[in-house]
Amino acid sequence: MPNAEPDLDPVFVHGRREAKWILWIWLGFAAWCTLYSYQFGYTSNPETMTSFWGMPTWVLGGVFLPWILATAVTVVFSLSWMADDDLSGEAVEEVGGGNTPRAGSNKPRHEPDEAAHDA
């Protein structure tokens, strides 16, 4: 029975995994900004609204705080979870068993290597 999922390039697999995490992080902070700002800004009475340094307090909790935390999460994510893949093209690792070399190589699988002609 053939393999249901073909062998994928490790760079693609890492990129797809990281994109999923980034999307979920973004959705979480976007939901926080939207829901918090709606709850404490849009639905509150302007007469009883408190302010901090001339700004409504809901702006601090619904805009500035999530932006600061999103920046911190992004820095931690990029420094600790993201994979640093080799894209130099020196290492040509065949994937999938077909004529698709690893990213970074311009030479198809079926062309002979120049070093083989010199021997």
Descriptive notes:
With 119 residues, the protein is mainly α. It has a domain at 10-85. 52% of the residues lie in helices and 3% in strands. It has three helices and two strands. A hairpin with a 2-residue loop joins β1 (51-52) and β2.
Secondary structure elements and their pairing?
Layout: H1 10-42, E1 51-52, E2 55-56, H2 57-80, H3 114-118
Antiparallel strand pairs: 1-2
Helix pairs in contact: 1-2
Briefly say what this structure is.
The chain is mostly helical. The protein has 3 helices and 2 strands; from the N terminus they run H-E-E-H-H.
Helix proportion: 40-55%
| Form type | elongated
The quaternary organization reads as single chain
Cα separation of the termini: 40 Å
**Using DSSP, what is the number of strands?**
2
Number of H/I helices: 3
The main β sheet shows up as:
2 strands, antiparallel
What does the average pLDDT come to? 77
Order of helices and strands: HEEHH
Please indicate the percent range of residues in DSSP E strands (runs of 2 or more): under 5%
Main β-sheet, spatial strand arrangement: 1-2
Estimated structural class? mainly alpha
Query: Which stretches are poorly predicted, pLDDT < 50 over at least 5 residues?
Result: 105-110
Radius of gyration: 25 Å
